[in-house]
Design goal:
The protein has three helices and no strands. It is mainly α and 100 residues long.
Length: 100
């Protein structure tokens, strides 16, 4: 399966719909939903005395965002090799901007 332990593109969303049949608007709404779920968990961790459970939930939601974005990249033609080149280019750009 996934030998590098990074999130993989998915084939279906939580409603069982093939993700490659979603419109651009539907797909970005799905990304937005994942972001809102992560945000909700972050809020819970800020007000809860049981922070670690919510931080783990937030972290899981953040990985869901990554997987959703990787899936979109796959749909628009970026396979694993192309994504790696893209990651490298973005990291280089961010390094030049002094973000690291």
């Amino acid at each position: 399966m996934n030998t590098n332990n990074l999130p993989l593109p998915v084939k279906r969303n939580k409603f069982g719909r093939n993700v490659d049949t979603l419109t651009v608007t539907e797909y970005y709404r799905q990304i937005e939903e994942e972001v809102l779920e992560a945000y909700a968990e972050a809020i819970k961790s800020g007000i809860s005395e049981k922070k670690s459970a919510f931080i783990d939930s937030e972290a899981e939601e953040l990985v869901d965002i990554i997987a959703t974005c990787i899936t979109r990249l796959e749909i628009i033609g970026y396979d694993e090799s192309a994504r790696q080149k893209l990651y490298d280019a973005v990291n280089e750009k961010n390094h030049k901007r002094g973000y690291f």
